Amino acid sequence: MALLEVNDISVRFGGIVALSDVTFDIEEGSICGLIGPNGAGKTTMFNVISRIYDPTTGSIRFNGGDLVGGSSDVAPHLISQVGIFRTFQNLALWDRMSVIENVMAGAHVRSKGNFFSSMLNIGRKKEEAELASQAFTILADLDLAGVAFQQCAGLPYGTLKRIELARALMGNPKLLMLDEPATGLTHSEVDELSLVIQKIRTDYDLTILLVEHHMGLVMSISEKVVVLDFGKKIAQGLPSEVQENPAVIEAYLGAPAS
């Protein structure tokens, strides 16, 4: 069963066509890699799914309901409430806050507080204690318990990447979108990241959409790969099928396969 259904999505910025009639779906519980050369439209597609951009044409369904282009679009500020969370290529952590505070911030969509309870501090201590406990459990799952109460400033880059993953998990996502998670990592850190992604997929019952230039990572953990080039889908299928596709080889190497 498809959790995410992308149907004929096109995005135009003036005379520039960023995406052209792109269609694909992602099965629930799977890892799908979205790849392509620079400028292929991967980030634009990410931004459409996460509701940062509106498509020019097309529709997206998520978890059985319309996300965009249907009878009722999901507003951008509500995207996390339907179960879609994303990380960004550039880190978006608060350096001077502790690791656990950064992770707890990922649960803002589940906060029970309203204006009046916040003003009067009603139930806040109990809720914060519960969130801190949940955050620490997630950090422990990602082997980050040892840095939970340290500031993010000065921590290794690979550790910061895992902290971002932990923060996203605090929102109880159904679909986790990872934007270039291996950027800046060493070979050993990339190998570790691949294990972490597969672990959280299983442990947290996730569906994962992965945009990544590191082909070794994508091909080793994805059940399905979708390839974009100049805004168009040129291939999709199993990693082994995509790697041998002449159109994909030409897009990356600039010449037809011999």
Automatic annotation (TrEMBL):
SMART domains: AAA. Residues 28-232 form the AAA+ ATPase domain. Keywords: ATP-binding, Nucleotide-binding, Transport. Signal peptide: none annotated. GO terms for molecular function: ATP binding; ATP hydrolysis activity. GO terms for cellular component: plasma membrane. The keyword Nucleotide-binding applies. It holds the Pfam family BCA_ABC_TP_C. This is Branched-chain amino acid transporter ATP-binding protein. It comes from Ilumatobacter coccineus (strain NBRC 103263 / KCTC 29153 / YM16-304). The lineage of its organism: Bacteria, Bacillati, Actinomycetota, Acidimicrobiia, Acidimicrobiales.
